[in-house]
Design a protein that fits this description.
Oligomer: single chain
Number of strands: 4
Shape: elongated
Mean pLDDT: 91
Number of helices: 7
Helix content: 25-40%
Order of helices and strands: HHHEHEEHEHH
Largest sheet: 4 strands, antiparallel
Strand order of the largest sheet: 2-3-1-4
Length: 173
């Protein structure tokens, strides 16, 4: 079932921006940075967590810095109706960092990582041995051109009206 998108206003975007720029900041620090009451920040964050806008507080781990500097993108063609099976099979392979169902000539797009070219080959062979994969195609990643990001896209939203927080509204209008 599809979720109804959350209606984010300027204060929500300011809080998300502050959370992104100051990832270790607590509620009080976020309150200071956005110039609104702590309770307002706390309730806004709780609402964004409940709606799924804030999906996680996991640390961003750079696998390259951790020694897995060989990465690749792999497109997979899978057996008809085997998406759930391939999801479980890919989840069991530690070198599979991400996998997405896609449209087009392939069915699944994966990002994989390894500590060496031999390690990469082992991950690719593990993927090819799964029962659901009929064909794969890989492309080695040379460098990151644009790192994973979300804030630029969020800032393209038309904010959902003005905020009720007087301190924020009066300094930002």
């Amino acid at each position: 079932m599809a979720r109804t998108p959350a209606k984010l206003d300027e204060l929500d975007l300011a809080i998300l921006t502050a959370m992104h720029e100051h990832q270790k900041a607590g509620i009080l620090e976020l309150s200071r940075r956005t110039r609104v009451a702590r309770a307002t920040v706390q309730s806004r964050i709780a609402r964004m967590e409940q709606s799924g806008v804030i999906a996680s507080y996991d640390p961003q781990i750079d696998v390259t810095a951790a020694g897995f500097d060989v990465q690749a993108f792999v497109t997979l063609e899978i057996a008809q109706g085997a998406l759930e099976t391939v999801a479980a099979e890919l989840d069991a392979i530690p070198g599979v960092l991400e996998a997405y169902a896609t449209t087009g000539s392939s069915d699944v797009l994966c990002r994989i990582g390894a500590d060496s070219h031999a390690g990469l080959q082992a991950v690719l062979l593990s993927i090819d041995k799964t029962s659901s994969v009929t064909r794969s195609h890989s492309v080695i990643m040379l460098s990151t051109v644009v790192a994973r990001r979300t804030l630029p896209l969020l800032h393209t939203l038309s904010p959902a009206g003005t905020t009720k927080a007087p301190a924020y509204r009066s300094t930002n209008e």
